[in-house]
Write a structure and sequence with these properties.
The structure holds two protein chains of two kinds. Chain A has a single domain, classed as Rossmann fold (3-Layer(aba) Sandwich), CATH 3.40.50. The model of chain A has no long low-confidence stretch (mean pLDDT 90). By secondary structure, chain A is of the alpha/beta class. The longest helix of chain A is centred in the C-terminal third of the chain and has 17 residues. A six-stranded mixed β-sheet of chain A has the order 6-7-8-3-9-10, with helices on both faces. By secondary structure, chain B is mainly alpha-helical. Helix content of chain B is 73%, strand content 4%. In chain B, strands 1-2 form a two-stranded antiparallel sheet. In chain B, strand 1 and strand 2 form a beta hairpin. The radius of gyration of chain B is 20 Å and the shape is globular. Chain B starts with a helix and ends in a 14-residue tail after the last helix. Classes of the chains: A alpha/beta, B mainly alpha. Chains A and B meet through helix 2 and helix 3 of A and helix 7 and helix 8 of B. Chain B: It comes from Muricoccus nepalensis. Chain B: It is a multi-pass membrane protein. Chain B: GO terms for molecular function: transmembrane transporter activity. Chain B: It is found in: Cell membrane.
Chain lengths: 224, 311
């Protein structure tokens, strides 16, 4: 579904990605593990088109999207939940969830269907729908950010360090959600970054390890 | 106090009315400056030039309309037309061909670029309209005067400044608040203001939002200038004094504050006109005294919320 071929990118003149290649199959759950500064977030931003590439290609469903403007990638079905949850504070949870659907001018029936799917998958969001995003706790915010990425991401969803800063009970709840995600959204390819591999290991199909902007290993877990 | 008031009550009333009228104009400029800075993160020093050019344009179009024999009420259309023409031509040109090239640069460079733009526009304006005062009084004469009761006195004041200007400013305030909170386009602008990258990931074309917001801000400033044309003669330097006052309003109110900008414009407008009336030598410093006093107590501005630190 999503493929990176030798993606290279610089930030402020310094190489941050040096030939990152990876592959996410439809419905696959892939982990990208690495220390802080290894290039995890930059990899996700490169997929979203949020920074210029020095080389390499990004392919979605077999088609090259490397030159597609960043704001068109949402339309192509790539959802992104950045590390800091980055919700729009003055908006309600519902407005946060619906903003991408409105911006993409999805038909009302399609919007309702996607919102329903997200509420079924994350029931707590239905009860928070009318709350202002700024008033949410960290864990609630992460759930809303996941829901918002799922509204957009009909083909691939990128989650940047979703467990960061979550209390153990909430991290467990988030891991359960990820485990159930495949059943609820069977065709969506999921890419999750994490600095702590233990949290993700039981869930994922493939683990890539990134260090100094290079993929060191790719292990296909037997559990897949 | 009572005796002072008896002697100076009418003067004070006059100062208040002057202040309200000038606050309405400052607000139109400051609210656009605020909006543009929130979205583009570029402090546009040349924002006051839109005010000046809008004013000159209004005078030119108004005088032209009178010359070709259009009915007097058409001068109101001249004001609106001048604002739209000025903003809709200069806004997109400047955003697309100048500012777009410096978004990634440091803010010092951006300031230098918009300062250079300010000087270019100032000279351009002198080339087109010269350095002699230009005035166009049509709409003021047309609306006549109203008697404003104040503290037992009756102050005759022109209706244009005491009714039309505040009404336009209030409509702008209400319309903008409604637009930003209740419409999708408004929420898109707010989203880009809050987090450009997250907004882009939601499918929002930030470049387009930049262009439209900048143009809208330019139209608002030009409208302020056009509305000022009937009450004050236009002279070189009006753009500079306008941008300086607007900076004071935005800094005092806090960034991103629309209602706050309205109240602060009122404070500064009235503060200035009261100074002009009673202690003219203080006129120039009063806006900054208000600004400094507020910022000493609340560095984020009267209505601003402290920005949460992002890593």
């Amino acid at each position: 579904m999503l493929e990176l071929r030798a993606v290279a990118a610089d930030i402020a003149g310094a190489p941050v990605l040096r030939g990152v290649s990876m592959h996410l199959p439809p419905g696959g759950l892939v982990a990208l593990i690495g220390r802080n500064g290894a290039g995890k977030t930059t990899t996700l931003r490169a997929i979203m088109g949020l920074l210029p590439l020095r080389g390499g290609q990004v392919l979605l469903g077999g088609e090259e999207v490397t030159g597609v403007p960043a704001h068109h990638r949402a339309r192509l079905g790539v959802g992104y939940a950045p590390e800091e949850r980055r919700l729009f504070g003055p908006f309600s949870v519902r407005q946060n969830l619906l903003l991408p659907a409105e911006v993409l001018r999805l038909p009302a029936a399609e919007t309702a269907r996607r919102l329903e799917a997200v509420f079924t998958f994350l029931p707590e969001l239905a009860t928070l729908a009318d709350r202002r995003a700024a008033g949410l706790s960290g864990g609630q915010g992460k759930m809303v950010a996941l829901g918002r990425a799922l509204i957009v991401g009909t083909r691939a969803v990128l989650l940047d360090e979703p467990f960061q800063g979550l209390a153990p009970a909430l991290a467990q709840r988030y891991a359960d959600a990820l485990r159930g995600l495949h059943a609820a959204f069977p065709r969506v390819a999921l890419l999750v970054t994490e600095s702590n591999p233990q949290l993700l290991e039981p869930l994922v199909d493939t683990t890539y390890v990134i260090e100094r902007g290079e993929i060191l290993t790719a292990d296909a877990a037997t559990a897949a | 106090m009572g005796e002072w008031f008896e002697q100076n009550g009418a003067l004070l009333g006059l100062a208040l009315l002057d202040g309200i009228a000038s606050a309405a104009l400052i607000f139109m400029v400051a609210v656009g400056l605020n909006l543009v800075f929130g979205v583009l993160r570029v402090l546009n020093v040349a924002h006051g030039s839109f005010f000046a050019i809008g004013g000159y344009m209004a005078a030119s179009i108004g005088l032209l309309m009178t010359a070709v024999g259009l009915p007097p009420w058409a001068s109101f259309a001249a004001l609106l037309l001048a604002a739209v023409v000025t903003g809709a031509i200069l806004g997109p040109l400047i955003e697309r061909f100048l500012l777009r090239r410096v978004y990634a640069e440091e803010s010092v460079l951006q300031l230098l670029v918009t300062f250079a733009l300010f000087m270019i526009l100032e000279d351009l304006q002198k080339i087109v309209w010269g350095v002699q005062p230009v005035s166009f009084g049509g709409p003021v004469a047309l609306m006549g005067t109203v008697d404003v009761p104040f503290a037992g006195d009756v102050i005759p004041y022109n209706a244009y400044q005491v009714i039309l200007l505040p009404v336009v400013a209030l409509l702008t305030l209400g319309g903008l608040a409604w637009f930003l909170r209740r419409t999708l386009a408004g929420r898109v602008i707010v989203a880009v203001t809050l987090d450009r990258e997250a907004a882009t990931a939601m499918g929002i074309d930030a470049g387009r939002v930049f262009l439209l917001t900048f143009t809208f801000g330019a139209v608002l400033a030009a409208l302020g200038g056009a509305l000022s044309a009937p009450t004050a003669s236009l002279v070189p330097g009006v753009g500079a004094s306008t941008i300086v006052l607007s900076f004071a309003v935005v800094a005092t109110a806090g960034l991103g504050q629309i209602e706050g900008a309205a109240l602060t414009a009122l404070m500064i407008g009235i503060g200035r006109s009261v100074a002009v009336t009673f202690e003219p030598e203080l006129e120039v410093v009063v806006p900054y005294l208000i600004m400094v006093a507020v910022l000493l107590l609340r560095p984020q501005g009267l209505f601003g919320v402290p920005e949460t630190r992002r890593i």
